[in-house]
UniProtKB/TrEMBL annotation:
<feature type="transmembrane region" description="Helical">
    <location>
        <begin position="289"/>
        <end position="306"/>
    </location>
</feature>
<keyword id="KW-0812">Transmembrane</keyword>
<feature type="region of interest" description="Disordered">
    <location>
        <begin position="134"/>
        <end position="164"/>
    </location>
</feature>
<feature type="transmembrane region" description="Helical">
    <location>
        <begin position="21"/>
        <end position="44"/>
    </location>
</feature>
<feature type="transmembrane region" description="Helical">
    <location>
        <begin position="327"/>
        <end position="352"/>
    </location>
</feature>
<feature type="region of interest" description="Disordered">
    <location>
        <begin position="84"/>
        <end position="106"/>
    </location>
</feature>
<keyword id="KW-1133">Transmembrane helix</keyword>
<keyword id="KW-0472">Membrane</keyword>
<protein>
    <submittedName>
        <fullName>Uncharacterized protein</fullName>
    </submittedName>
</protein>
<feature type="transmembrane region" description="Helical">
    <location>
        <begin position="372"/>
        <end position="390"/>
    </location>
</feature>
Amino acid sequence: MRLSSIVSEAIRNIASGASRTIIWFLALAVSGTLFGGFEALTIIGQENTAAARIEAAADVTTIVSPVSAIDGAACDRLIEAQGGPSASGAMREGEQITPRSTPGRSIGSYEVTAGMIRLLALSSVISSSASSVSSTTAAGHGSPSGASPSSDSSSSNPAFSSANQPAADASGVWVSTALAHDFGWAKGSLMETDHGDIPVAGVFDWPNDGRDTRFVYALIVPASASAKPFAECWAKQWPQTDALDLLLNETAISGVADANTLPGVTQLNKSHDRRYSAASLYETRMTRVLPIAALAVGVVIGIAAVRRRRLEYAGALHCGQRKGAQLLTALCEMLITSGASIAVALPLLAALCWRLSPSDPAAVFLAAVRPPAAMLAGALVATALAVLAVRESRLFRLFKAR
């Protein structure tokens, strides 16, 4: 038989209902969508968990020196190291500053390097981006693709690209949104204090979400990175690596601390587990075996589709149909059926990924389509093997058992 005749025969079988296409189509479409959707939702859940950690500054690691023996310039230069953080900066406690509007109420201050200001500004961008995404998602409009990245695909978020990192304006002090709200300050305001008039260079978000609360109600004052040592060095990195702790230890000035005052590395937000690893969670997720399960389901569907027509296939062989033509016809029917089911499942999975993924919907979609693709492959292979197993010699036995 010519290929056109085989295709025509397959289409007639589907149109007439002889191949029971609707049953296998629904089985493949529903199973493929459920398997792919389960995989997508699992990965999206991990993305949201990681995004929440980043928003809460759980990706910031600090080294604390009890004797203020941190090299501020070295701390700022950590971003230049291979595998270094996206932002880093040093800080130390400063003087109490009293606004003239509240003579009896002084405010603590912290002297920081330019790198610390960049880190605070970057954290504010991430927090604002996540908040806008959350409100948009809750309202049921728009796409959350601007959320904080949750995996190695962080470069997909504009807020994380080096070209879009906020500049460190060191022309004045920086204040938190809580402090700015209480005193009516904003970027560009002039703060009248007992230390003179100080311009407000920027406002940053510092929510009470488990992170270090010292910056919530304090003035962040730019200082020279090389004038004198600092007490702490902060480094923001995602995904976090073991090398970051070594880099932070390199900022400690040698020969200053003794055995009782050695600097220690800790996490800025201690409410989150520091041993968290997004890569490990992804690699060990329960749904990683879904392609294998989907393949098994496809095999079962392929075998069942042929098994219900064994008598028909054996009779066709008895009437002179060649085995090769029969095989191609059955494969063509299953290809059309499974292809149609995939055509239904893919748009649904794409909509799910682009609607809910906070970081990289394309990567989530590629992971979600693996189970349906494995199911299609399993159905085609099983169909071929099951057709090859049908023998004309079993026609009478099949006829008796019908």
